[in-house]
Amino acid sequence: MVGAVPEGSTPAWLAACGDVAVTVVMPTYNEAESLPRIAGQLLDLPLAGLRLLVVDDNSPDGTGRIADELAERHPGRVGVLHRTAKDGLGRAYVAGLTLAVEQGAEYVLQMDADGSHAVSYVPQLIGSALATGAGFVVGSRYVPGGRLASEWAPHRRLLSRWANRYVGAVLRTGLRDVTAGFVLWHADVVRALRLDHVRSNGYCFQVELKYAAVRAGCPAVEIPIRFEERREGASKMSAGVQFEAAVLPWRLLLGDLKGGRAARRVDVIGPAQRRRAGAGRRWP
Ligand SMILES: Nc1nc2c(ncn2[C@@H]2O[C@H](COP(=O)(O)OP(=O)(O)OP(=O)(O)O)[C@@H](O)[C@H]2O)c(=O)[nH]1
Ligand SMILES: [Mg+2]
């Protein structure tokens, strides 16, 4: 059992989360060491409707084979999408999110396989979506209560914070953590966003998707998380990805000149402020 929920005392909100069909879409490239641990923690959550879909780009370290073994051991709960070569985080997510929605997920969760996104937040993300009716919920480092792992060097903190401020100033989404990669989406939003039209790959995919959703009027919430340092393996962040990130906001904005500014319907909520937003979820 993972997280802060004591055994034997499942609160009503958590019990409600358990009935929801949620697929965690997890792209992997050389995550053989961490995947079994993260997968085990996810499957131990008291969420019977939760599935894991690993999207592996033919990792040389055998991550794909490990994912296949997990799928054999947990039929119906773990699936694997094998792709032939490393093609970037964005393309892996487009393939994985599309498949998960086609297979009937009501919500899909973007989550890294390197341990940066703690499994203990998964019930909170689902609970926040159900309680607010938001189209997407962001696990955010930059709302009150959110933070970066203490191991992060000052220059990395500065770069991450600056990147968010820069993108935020240009695109004005209203989100505090627009580069976040720990995001729960309602399936209707994923369908409406037409992922095959998303142009960015890598890390920029995260920004482009959120921008498109906010622009379409999709309500979003952010909940605070502590972003952990990866425990095993190596980062795949490249100079090319960082360059793409610098020009991305301008590319998105120029592409939008005809369509008007983004509609801003983003709230920041903490665990104590969750409210039931009720009625129909149809976006955009
Ligand atoms: N399928 C697939 N997964 C990828 C690819 N690149 C990265 N990933 C996965 O995407 C997730 C995030 O990648 P990281 O290397 O941790 O990148 P990051 O989190 O942006 O950077 P760090 O902060 O340095 O960890 C991990 O689960 C990676 O294994 C890729 O080309 N294909
Ligand atoms: Mg990482």
TrEMBL record:
UniProt keyword terms in alphabetical order: Glycosyltransferase, Transferase
Example of a GO MF term: dolichyl-phosphate beta-D-mannosyltransferase activity
Domain of life per record: Bacteria
SUPFAM superfamilies on file: Nucleotide-diphospho-sugar transferases
GO cellular component terms given for this protein: membrane
Gene Ontology terms: biological process: glycolipid biosynthetic process
UniProt domain Glycosyltransferase 2-like: residue ranges: 23-190
Record-linked InterPro entries: DPM1-like (IPR039528), Glyco_trans_2-like (IPR001173), Nucleotide-diphossugar_trans (IPR029044)
Coiled coil, from the record: none
Xref: PANTHER family: DOLICHOL-PHOSPHATE MANNOSYLTRANSFERASE SUBUNIT 1 (PTHR43398:SF1)
Family designation: Belongs to the glycosyltransferase 2 family.
Identification of the protein by name: Polyprenol monophosphomannose synthase
Species of origin: Streptomyces hainanensis
Organism taxonomic ancestry: Bacteria, Bacillati, Actinomycetota, Actinomycetes, Kitasatosporales
